[in-house]
Structure prediction request, 133 residues.
Amino acid sequence: MIDKAIKLPVFVILLCVSTFAHAEPEQDSYATQFFAKSGNALANITTGWLEVPKNIYITTRETNIIYGFIGGTGMGIFHLAGRIATGVFNLITAPIPSDPIVNPHYVWNDFGTKTTYAVQFYLEEPSTETAPQ
Prediction:
């Protein structure tokens, strides 16, 4: 009985200590980053067509159904090409670890959010200073 009463608190303390010891986020291995980027690229290439109904939905929600269908189809085709192009680029550059260019990373993530594109490769940090006049 006393043996169980001692083992349980010791186990809980060791569990807490081991949790704190691993609190730092571990960096993904190169292989994990490579396959994640390749998978993201393939998903964007094959599901890029979903940008058309997504943009029809977003534009209809923001305006009306007529402009939503016409303008949303146009924007959807634009983002379809953008998502496929960035997917091809990410597939080609999969050996170089970086974040995907398109945001949201997959077309089905947050379906009501507009698709945006980010610059991934900087030679130096972008400056926020203004030029003296």
Notes: Residues 14-23 have pLDDT under 50 and may be disordered. The helical segments are 2-21, 30-47, 51-62, 65-92.
